[in-house]
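>> received
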Amino acid sequence: MTASPQLRIELLEHELESLATRVSLLEKRAAPTRPAPAPETPLPAPAPLRHPEPATSPAASRLPLLPRVDLEELLGLRLLGLAGGLATLVGLAFLVALAVDRGWVGESARIGIALALSTTLLGLGFWLYERRGRTQASLALVGTAVTGLYLTLAGASVVYELVPLLLALPLALAVGAVATAIAVRWRSRTVAGLGTLGTLVAPAVADPLGGGGVGFLAVALAAAAAVLVWQRWEWLAVAAFAVSMPQVYLWALQGPAATELVSLLSVFAALSLAAALGYELRTRMKEPRAAACLLAASGATIVAAAGFAGLPHGQGDLAGGVWIAALAAAHGAVGIALLRIRRVSRATALLLVGLGLALADLAFGLLAGGAV
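>> returned
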């Protein structure tokens, strides 16, 4: 009995399904197992490019930055303030000169008027500073007043002899202390310029080449040195030296008494060193300052020359040579002491030692009767 076509088709379909199942099983057994893909590791980020820094020498890295100069401030308000202060001083001088020439006031009245005007200017300057703040007008008034007070004391003591010199010098020292405190407290170059430099000029105006005027000059230089200990103002150090030391040398040429000459020159030598090196001693600077070294060397030279010129140094006279020898010993001792305490740069201390050796060589030549 033959099967129907429909039954044959069903049998064929069943056999095809069974064959497909077997084939799939065989393929699974024969196919190799593939390992799972490993996770991709992220690539490291590229290192940033580093540009080589330009090499700088150690000396160049230690150089202090120079302060920026504000030309607008220098040529504007500050210059006008200085001009106003100088104009006030000149006006006061002409007023007093006119009054003296026409016989309007006597000596006591002149000093009284100058004292009253200077005190008024000082009070007005402080009032403006408190009310309006740091203005050039207030600074110029205070600087002008300090110079006026100092000039008044010098005139009252050494010109008119109305005040004893022993009383006038402490009063001048008090005025200098006030000027120093104001210049340091306010950090004002205007007060330092008018007040400090004005007091250095006042002795030459009141009593040029006189012993009393030189005493006032020493007090004024002490005030300038005090300012320079606290403020690094090379311009003030150079200006104070240029104003004061020529007066000292000219006074020494007038032939004062030996005791007076030696004592005052010793004071000026100490003040010159203090003005040149005071700031370095206070701040322990490790680098030498050109202005300080120049002023220290120039001060020693001028003081040595002034003492030698004022003291006997002819045939058989040894006072001039002894003075230079003493000055050499003092500078050498100060230089060695500074090398030991290390409060200033080594170059500055060695400069003082070198100055001492140079002066010692000069003194030996003078005392031995000839240069070596």
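>> Residues 8 and 14 are 10 Å apart (CA to CA).
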